[in-house]
Amino acid sequence: MIPEHWLSALIGGICIGASATVLLLMNGRIAGISGISGRVLAGRGAEPWALLFLAGLLIGGAIYEYGLAPTPTPVAAAAPWLMLGGGLLVGIGSRMGHGCTSGHGVCGLGRFSRRSLIAVLVFMTTAFITVYLVRHTGIVGGG
What we know:
about 140 residues, mainly alpha
């Protein structure tokens, strides 16, 4: 069964792929969010395109959430310390993996990078295990 809002997912995927391709072709840069945001926060990458890229992420998310989404995004029920710990682990993992899901999954796989394929397989396996633990075992987050 096709989800009710498959069209917005399709359009979003096309926009993500097209924007990553345009950035690579026009600027020679990979559209990896962790790398772009890390350089901007460190003061090394505050180029206009990087600032516009990050602003577009925030503005695009706000436009969807408050103007286009059929229902509001659910609020996470996890404890704040668990959310902060998860965010910290994602940041450490992005640093250790030399990129995030956008850099490896969208850009790296599109360039047939073996390193990105391995990274995406690790990301996805970890996500599957985490969802299972949280939703079905009660080991993490009080399931």
